[in-house]
């Protein structure tokens, strides 16, 4: 379906074309007409499906048709990275329009606070905010949301996982009861449905491919002992110049530092990012990675959702994600916008049960590949072992939590 089918204002069509978008994604085809009709909406859609444009475009279209310098849309997101990403997309889509937006998030300086206060008190068309920072402004009494028409909760499941439920409920008390509310979530557990019942009115529900990686993601796994992991990373990326953009996820800040330091010592262009970096430093690292000045970025799970970095060739899960759905978000960093990408996961002897739960969730068995000969043998695949890692849960979409070989991998004529 072409974007012209939605009868958007011509200024939006020009921006969409300038940004290189032609065909609407299934999420956009399903959500945009309902949003245009003014219906509340709850949508289950994962990273990389075009959900941000699905809610931004119809709202921008309505704002262009009747522009007034007041805060009419509030988008609440779990992280500063996602706030910045959505704000940038608003600026892109609204380039030929008078609509303005501002991202409100923690970690900034005094100048940021002054700018945010001005926008929240005098009005900006669209505010994209993290819950904690917005609560801080609301507590001071100058925020004007009386003209608000649209509330969007993006990555709703992640916000609840991060403990933002009370903040969200408090923010909603400051908003007009008469509004259009849209909720986007990658999964649909019970707590999301309960929240939806409280804040949405007769919502239309759409569901697109819960917890399954995009079709363009080529997946593989290696069975490794921990001591083999960093040598394996080096083996996978050395001498492969066609892998121009590599993202490595690890479970802890300590491991992130160790991986980055070791790869630097071996001559690779690498940077690391975690919650230890302040906001300016994090933005600079991401800017350099996007512009290909850095080939390898090593990160904690802070980047697994909400960062729009295009054309990543290789994702490496240095550790199996602690939650099955997080695997989908991590590998979703590659194969964006109908491209292809490669996602590899390292599985030690304690993580086999967790990875088997991931395979059950995505309804697919990921190929287990042999280690390079120089690294020796890894552990044997034994997913039915009685070991159950602590703090692991596998959420069923819409349900309750519960406790929880052969040949190389060939792509484009090159073999890993």
CATH class categorisation of the largest domain: Alpha Beta
DSSP helix fraction? 25-40%
Question: How many helices?
Answer: 14
Q: Mean pLDDT, as a whole number?
A: 84
Strand order of the largest sheet: 3-4-2-5-6-1-7
- For this structure, the CATH topology of the largest domain is Rossmann fold
Biggest pleated sheet: 7 strands, parallel
Strand content: 15-25%
Low-pLDDT residue spans:
387-416
Global structural class: alpha/beta
Instruction: Tell me, briefly, the overall form.
Output: globular
Secondary-structure element series: HHEHEHEHEHEHHEHEEHEHEHEEHEHEEE
The count of strands amounts to 16
Radius of gyration: 22 Å
Give the termini distance in whole angstroms. 38 Å
CATH architecture of the largest domain: 3-Layer(aba) Sandwich
Overall domain count: 2
Write out the CATH superfamily name of the largest domain: P-loop containing nucleotide triphosphate hydrolases
Which features does this protein show?
single chain, 416 residues, alpha/beta, Rossmann fold, 2 domains, seven-stranded parallel beta sheet, 14 helices, 16 strands, globular, disordered C terminus
């Amino acid at each position: 379906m072409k974007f012209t089918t939605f009868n958007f204002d011509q200024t939006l069509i020009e921006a969409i074309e300038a940004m290189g978008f032609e065909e609407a994604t299934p999420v956009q085809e399903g959500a945009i007409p309902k949003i245009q009709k003014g219906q509340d909406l709850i949508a289950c859609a994962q990273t990389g499906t075009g959900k941000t444009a699905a809610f931004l475009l119809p709202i921008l279209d309505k704002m262009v048709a009747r522009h007034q310098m007041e805060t009419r849309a509030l988008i609440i997101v779990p992280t500063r990275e996602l706030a910045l990403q959505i704000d940038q997309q608003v600026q892109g889509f609204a380039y030929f329009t008078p609509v303005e937006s501002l991202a409100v998030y923690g970690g900034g300086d005094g100048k940021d606070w002054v700018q945010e206060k001005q926008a929240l008190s005098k009005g900006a068309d669209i505010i994209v905010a993290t819950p904690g920072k917005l609560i801080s402004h609301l507590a001071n009494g100058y925020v004007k949301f009386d003209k608000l028409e649209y509330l969007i909760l993006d990555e709703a499941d992640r916000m609840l996982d991060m403990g933002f439920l009370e903040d969200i409920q408090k923010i909603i008390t400051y908003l007009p009861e008469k509004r259009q509310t849209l909720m986007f979530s990658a999964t649909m557990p019970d707590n999301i449905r309960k929240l939806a019942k409280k804040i949405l009115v007769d919502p239309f529900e759409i569901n697109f491919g819960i917890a399954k990686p995009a079709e363009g993601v080529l997946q593989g796994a290696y069975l490794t002992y921990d001591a083999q992991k960093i040598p394996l990373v080096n083996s996978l990326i050395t001498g492969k110049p066609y892998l121009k953009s590599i993202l490595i996820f690890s479970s802890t800040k300590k491991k992130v530092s160790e991986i980055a330091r070791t790869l630097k010592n071996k001559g690779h262009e690498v940077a690391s990012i975690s919650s230890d970096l302040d906001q300016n430093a994090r933005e600079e690292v991401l800017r350099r990675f996007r512009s290909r000045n850095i080939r390898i970025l090593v990160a904690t799970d802070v980047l697994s959702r909400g960062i729009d970095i295009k054309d990543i060739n290789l994702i490496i899960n240095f550790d199996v994600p602690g939650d099955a759905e997080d695997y989908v978000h991590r590998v979703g960093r590659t194969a964006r916008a109908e491209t292809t990408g490669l996602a590899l996961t390292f599985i030690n002897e304690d993580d086999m049960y967790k990875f088997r739960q991931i395979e059950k969730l995505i309804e697919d068995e990921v190929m287990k590949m042999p280690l390079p000969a120089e690294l020796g043998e890894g552990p044997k695949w034994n997913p039915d072992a009685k070991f159950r890692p602590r703090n692991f849960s596998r959420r069923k979409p819409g349900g309750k939590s519960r406790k929880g070989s052969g040949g190389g991998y060939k792509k484009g004529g090159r073999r890993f």
